[in-house]
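Treating backbone geometry as a discrete language has practical consequences that deserve illustration. The amino acid sequence and the backbone structure tokens for this protein are reproduced below.
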Amino acid sequence: MNADMTPLAIRQQIRSGEFTGNTSGFAQGFVQGNLAIMPKEWANDFLQFCQLNPKPCPIVGMSGQPGAFMLPDLGEDLDIRSDIPKYRIYENGVMTAEVADVKITGAMTW
């Protein structure tokens, strides 16, 4: 993989399992961020926290619907369940797993 790849090309390699490393430095000129998936009842509090702390916690995008996993406003063919090299699953503040996708992970089913 090279730094000049498009975000779509990188996501396709991640989704297929061809790339599993850190994406820092790739897709120059595009924003990268972290993903937070949480119960619907926490979403407004988390959004308010981020709005009050925009520098360390900027909101780049949101799904808008509970359970939505495609984010067309953020990129072509973007599926948040499989387009990140590794997902860390936390339960009660403790990391319980690190997986390649979150399509089906214990209590989280899409």
Observations:
- The two ends are 29 Å apart (CA to CA).
- Strands lie at 87-91, 94-99, 104-105, 108-109.
- The chain has one domain: 7-109.
- The chain has a mean pLDDT of 88.
